[in-house]
Amino acid sequence: MQDALLALTRYWTERGCVVVQPYNTEVGAGTLNPATVLRVLGPEPWRVSYVEPSVRPDDARYGENPNRLQTHTQFQVILKPDPGDPQELYLGSLEALGIDVRAHDVRFVEDNWASPALGAWGLGWEVWLDGLEITQFTYFQQAGGMSLDPVSVEITYGIERIMMALQGVDHFKDIAYAPGISYGEAFGQAEYEMSRYYLDDADVEANKRLFEEYAAEARRMLDARLPVPAHNYVLKCSHTFNVLDARGAISTTERARAFGRMRGLAREVAQLWAARREELGHPLGLAQAPAPASLPATFAEVADASTLLFEIGTEELPPAEVTRTVQAVRQAVADKLGATRLAHGAVEVHGTPRRVVVLVPDVAPHEPNAEKTVRGPRVSAAFDADGNPTKAAQGFARGQGVDVAALGRVTENGVEHVALVRTDPGRGAVEVLSGLLGEVVAELRAEKNMKWNDPKLSFTRPIRWLLALLGTTPVPVAVSSLAAEPKTRVHRTAATPVVEVPTADGYLEFLAGHGIDASAERRRAAIVARAEELAASVGGVVDFEGVLDEVTNLVERPTPILGSFDERYLELPAQILTTVMRKHQRYLPVRARDGSLLPHFVAVANGEVDADLVRAGNEAVLRARYEDAAFFWRADLRTPLEDMKAGLEKLTFADKLGSMADRAARIAALARRLAEEVGAADDTLARAGELAKFDLGSQMVIELSSLAGVMAREYAERAGETPEVARALYEMELPRSAGDALPSSTPGALLSLADRFDLLAGLFGIGANPTGSSDPFGLRRAALGAVSVLRAFPDLKGITLTKALALAAQAVEEQRRDESPTIPAAALDAAREFAVRRYEQQLLDAGHDHRFVNAVLPLADAPAVADTTLAELTALAGDPDFAALVAALQRVRRIVPADTVGEYDPQVLAEPAEVALHKALADVPAGVTGLAAFAAAATGLTGPVNTFFDEVLVMAEDADVRRARLGLLAAIRDLAAPVLDWQALGAALG
């Protein structure tokens, strides 16, 4: 291992990095060393590399866990500014470690980083070596709450992980650290003793005093304008807090207060550091931005219609962004081409993680000329009575650069104007495309955008090259510092990673010849076909659920590889195994025909690799993952459920809303109140409520959060709880996403509703509403889930959105009476409207007529009632009697002012038509519920309403008569109002 550290130090030193030493106080990551977190601030260039022992008390495991240590070794690299080729430099460092990057599967997999305590974030990847995460690779965007310019590249190697993979060992203790000395021999004692300290022996009160003293000293150093010692004491605060957290000594309130305090100090340190460097005149100088690219003064001409090829080359895009970017680029190119006069064929766009390829056949060589008429003043104003040009005509002609005699005439809307017909010459295709394609690149945006070394571009990952050809003719495209060339980049590990592209024709085949499948459809089909072959070879079938789309967009040339794992891991619950495969490793599980798991999986590598080497690496990674899972499983089974539940006190939910223990208590109370509303309270609900969310305190769910609910069921059953209670605890987490399974039991449904309404009321109550695409607490998912459960359980229709939100707010207020104000009614109204909009979208997505959807939305407070009404409305839509009733009721609504009260004196009504209408209204039975029943009962109103409007003047001169007639119509309106929004149906029904 020490040789690896020396090799990395040598490699980066040779590439201009300063070597510094590990920091002299505990840090949780190399990022916190001032050589990173402070040096990335400001405009000075900075290249550094160093080893950093990273101390994380909460990861202490007494040295027993094979993959987790309280002190692990990072190797940290900062490249400021971004050199333009940091990924290639990084791959070179792996070769310096002796890793054959052509034989191994090295992948950049989306993994963004944020540290709210530092006011820092960045976008990037975790780097995989045959499925093993070995490096964090990040483009720093912000630190200390300050946007970074220039942007720094941060590369953080996990040294123990790399060495375990290279040396083929299964436990960190077995790493060969130096000749004849293992890692365990060198550091095993320290690992055990520091674990003892952090988990068992640290003096809580002493560390609390230290935290206060360190924070005070950091404050004093800031006041003295000394950012370096101030930062030192902020680090000591952070480590002391982590010690207290590992000891379980931090309450929710203390956590929020400590985080806020450290965040504030860290930001002040960053701002003071930047100010001090400026005062010192930036001793390291100023980083220089790349020079802007330029376009030629003239553009090439082509003689014939040709194929346009345009490629935007990037560093690895997040899988979801591949699809989104393909769609966005297709739309942008089609729209921009459509705005020109160039004839062209259909726009075809393909995407991989590293490129978006645009192909447009039959692009005309030139735009046709166009005549443009420029209108001037009216003829009557342009010439005097003698026909001489006035100043208006002369000024117009002068502005157009012609003599008055050249002006013609044009008539518009019956008025004659002087005018000039100009010929707008068509431009050559190369010139048109040059500007158009540059705009496409400049306007690219994603859900999360970042900066890199280019001063003007912003996108989800760096754009590194452009390729533009019209047939065989290069199209000059210049965007900020990027200039298009007739070249593309193929696999980084290819013998020639940058290749010339001679022609746009046959480009997809050209890429295929270099091991790249640009078509996502072809990559997907290749994965499915080969994975099915591999699974069949061991008597199984592939489970593609959940990861196929992602895997398709993680590779440019898929190479499925069959792997295996020890059958003893099948003793773990299957969902643990598949969650690890899918969520952590993006593997495809292999199942037997009966659906049970087989001890096999399919990993999808990128390009040509040594299949045996990659298989062995992925099997080792999965084995380590399953060892972790088995370790957590065994530890959790030894832990009483009540102890796990007690652990929720340490888990923060949200500012002003307490801990997860507080939230679990609110869910239990709310579920009980909801049950009382519909007469569904029982012992199962009560017991499940007592245990609500307990599994969030389990080691398994802390590590694999997506298993919440699954582990509650597993642990509850094994602890002797009834199957009904175990099922309710599992179903509380359902549905997890759109289209997911729903609860099947009433207790499970009530807990699920309580969970989601607590989220909505609490978070809307503190102003944490979703904004744009930002929804950190999953409130859209929560609202959709609540609506879905209410739709699935018509017996719970007594639980309306309004009532549930009010009860949820009451539970929050009762629990936090002394700490937070009452939840505003406006917040609950906003939460209700938010849920109604989710319901509306569900109905529209299901293909329902938008008029029918709008008509039932007033009933959406009880979604099951709205569903029933929508079904009845759909069934009645073709009934002519119902259509006539709708038309009659709409006539009533149109004429009656909204504030008219539905009361009248029947004695005032004298005309036969109004008397008949009064009698028809009286004949409608009271208490009719549901649209179908109402339509049947109210059909008798249709004729009398129509006759009334034909024969009676509603707005009679006599005030009493007018009032009675309007009151009669208002009474009909009010009778129908609770049933449907009749106006939303439009003038007629199809």
Number of helices: 34
Query: Can you tell me the overall shape?
Result: globular
Question: Would you identify the regions where 5 or more consecutive residues have pLDDT less than 50?
Answer: none
Range of helix content: 40-55%
User: What would you call the structural class?
Assistant: alpha+beta
**Which band does the percent of strand residues land in?**
15-25%
**Averaged pLDDT:** 94
Instruction: Please outline the major beta sheet.
Output: 8 strands, mixed
Radius of gyration: 35 Å
Structural summary, described in words:
A hairpin with a 3-residue loop joins strand 27 and strand 28 (658-659). Helix 9 (319-338) packs antiparallel against helix 12 (429-442). This protein has 990 residues and is an alpha+beta fold. The mean pLDDT is 94. Strands 1, 2, 3, 4, 5, 6, 7 and 8 form an 8-stranded mixed β-sheet that branches. A 5-stranded antiparallel β-sheet has the order 12-13-11-17-18, covered by helices on one side. A 4-stranded antiparallel β-sheet has the order 23-25-26-24, sandwiched between helices. It has 34 helices and 28 strands. The longest helix is centred in the N-terminal third of the chain and has 28 residues, at 252-279.
